[in-house]
Amino acid sequence: MMRPTDCGPPGSTMDTSTASLFAAYRTWADRLTYDAVAALPPGEAARERPTLFKSIVGTLNHNLLIDLVCQAHLEGREHGFAARNIVLHRGLDELRAAQEAVNRWYVDWSAAQTAASLAEPVRFRFIGGEEATMTRGAILLHVVNHASYHRGWVAEMFFAVPARNPATDLPVYLRELAALVRA
């Protein structure tokens, strides 16, 4: 029987090609997002807005922080964070470089997985201290899904600028990927 802190049905799995696809998709979506944020008028990325993480940069910092927390879970170590709204990097260039580094880690990590390793349960503590268990594959899925969710927040903040946000949906990525294969 599942406990409330167990995330996902017993035996739920992800295959290695899906893991690699998700890691590559995440990298692509972040590149488009950071390119668009960098193209905003000066000051807009850090402008305080009525949102939980206070700004576009604050929201992107939250994505990075959760990526680092999940990386620690996958590596079997403590993440060391006491809150989820910590600003790790105030400048967009430094934030982007840190995000690109962790994205590369997830791409490399995904490529090194097997069906068995993706199905392995990982016990960890959430930032709030609650214990939980997820498979390695489910943790990766959370990383990708979480970032997509908060990219939606960033997209909403673009409307306040006003500016056009990039389309970072999975079908757009798959279409572009198919076009590259055909070329």
Pick out its properties.
Four Helix Bundle (Hemerythrin (Met), subunit A); disordered N terminus; 2 strands
- CATH top-level class: Mainly Alpha
Shape: globular
Q: Give helix % range.
A: 55-70%
Largest sheet: 2 strands, antiparallel
- DSSP E strands, number: 2
Bin the strand percentage: 5-15%
Chain-averaged pLDDT: 93
Strand order, sheet with most strands: 1-2
Within CATH, the superfamily carries the name dinb family like domain
**Count of discrete structural domains:** 1
Give the end-to-end Cα distance, rounded to a whole number of Å. Answer: 50 Å
Secondary structure layout plus pairing:
Blueprint: H1 16-38, H2 56-75, H3 92-111, H4 115-119, E1 121-125, E2 131-135, H5 136-160, H6 170-182
Short note summarizing the structure:
This protein has helices at residues 16-38, 56-75, 92-111, 115-119, 136-160, 170-182; strands at residues 121-125, 131-135. The chain is mostly helical and 183 residues long.
Structure description:
This protein has helices spanning 16-38, 56-75, 92-111, 115-119, 136-160, 170-182; strands spanning 121-125, 131-135. It is mainly alpha-helical and 183 residues long. It has one domain (16-182): dinb family like domain (Four Helix Bundle (Hemerythrin (Met), subunit A), Up-down Bundle). The protein has a two-stranded antiparallel sheet. Helix 1 runs parallel beside helix 5. The longest helix is centred in the C-terminal third of the chain and has 25 residues, at 136-160. The radius of gyration is 17 Å and the shape is globular. Residues 1-6 have low confidence and may be disordered.
